[in-house]
Write a structure and sequence with these properties.
The chain has about 280 residues and is α/β, with parallel strands linked by helices. The protein has one domain (about 5-275): TIM Barrel (Alpha-Beta Barrel), CATH 3.20.20. Helix 3 (about 70-85) crosses helix 4 (about 105-120). Strands 1, 2, 3, 4, 5, 6, 7, 8, 9 and 10 form a ten-stranded parallel beta sheet that branches. It has twelve helices and ten strands. The chain has helices at about 20-30, 45-50, 70-85, 105-120, 135-145, 155-165, 185-200, 200-210, 215-220, 225-230, 235-250, 265-275; strands at about 5-10, 35, 55-60, 65, 90-95, 130, 150, 170-180, 235, 255-260. It starts with 5 loop residues before the first strand and ends with a helix.
Length: about 280
């Protein structure tokens, strides 16, 4: 799929479902290629985003396998595909052991789920799905059974390493949470408020520990070093420099998730893509 170099990432916790069409128009008008919807949505919830835009690719980041029957997911995909051909990418993931009591043997579970999709009356093609992956075995599965991977809450170092794991041909979409605010103390406070939940989830903390961070970096809301690497702050130009570093490290696309405030972050989206293109 043609995702474009830059995308946006948000969820209906930030942008309400009623605002979805407007948000998609704002993103498309700003020049973004893809709109990634997080928060473990149902796939059908992306319809309003598709209706609100003309060419924007819309993806999930991610639908959770523990909350879905694979045949139902395949059916929902083809209902959208019939109305919006070549514009839907199904991001799929296993979530986190802390989030569901069903979480067991994630690698085997994702393989079974993908088998179920492939055995559906109308499967989701391999080139229309992408997997959330952080660790080596899941990254290898993402390259083998989907377009590639859409990692979350990671550093440039992880992007570089993940590219080595999946090879040159698979797609790597890097989510980049950020704070467009040049007051460093205030920006880090915003970043820590966002990071607090993720620093309590073992999938993310294990990935950080394996890519150069230490246990001390994870404590007390995250060290400045960790926060600045994973959730960069500053001017739009400062953040765009980090986004370009992800691209140079092997990301096909970087999707911006500006933090702070409520509703559609139109000003931040526009400033970030303008800076990224400079």
């Amino acid at each position: 799929m043609n995702f474009g170099e830059w995308g946006v990432w948000t969820s209906f916790r930030r942008v309400s479902e009623d605002e979805a069409g407007e948000a998609a128009r704002v993103a498309e008008d700003a020049g973004y290629g893809t709109f990634w919807l997080g928060g473990s949505p149902r796939l059908a919830q992306v319809r309003r985003l598709l209706e609100g835009s003309e060419k924007l690719v819309v993806g999930t980041s991610i639908v959770n396998i523990w909350a879905y029957d694979p045949e139902d997911l395949a059916r929902e995909f083809h209902e959208l595909e019939a109305d919006f051909p070549d514009r839907v990418c199904v991001g799929i993931g296993v979530g986190h052991p802390e989030a569901t009591s069903d979480y067991k043997r994630p690698l085997s579970a994702i393989e079974r789920f993908l088998d179920g999709i492939d055995e559906a009356p109308q499967p989701i093609p391999t080139d229309r799905r992408i997997l959330a992956a952080l660790a080596p075995k899941m990254l290898a599965t993402s390259a083998r059974r989907s377009l590639g991977t859409i990692p979350y809450f990671t550093s440039v170092d992880h992007t570089r390493w993940a590219r080595e794991q999946i090879g040159p041909d698979a797609d790597l979409i890097a989510e980049l949470a950020c704070v467009v605010d040049e007051d460093a103390e205030r920006a880090r406070a915003t970043a820590r408020g966002y990071a607090d939940m993720y620093l309590g989830l073992s999938n993310y903390t294990n990935a950080l520990l394996q890519r150069g961070f230490e246990q001390a970096d994870l404590e007390d809301g995250g060290s400045d070093r960790l926060i600045d690497h994973v959730v960069p702050h500053g001017s739009a130009a400062d953040i765009a420099a980090v986004a370009r570093a992800h691209r140079e490290a092997g990301a096909n696309q970087v999707c911006f998730q500006p933090l702070g405030g409520e509703g559609i972050p139109a000003d931040d989206w526009q400033a970030l893509i303008a800076a990224a293109r400079d």
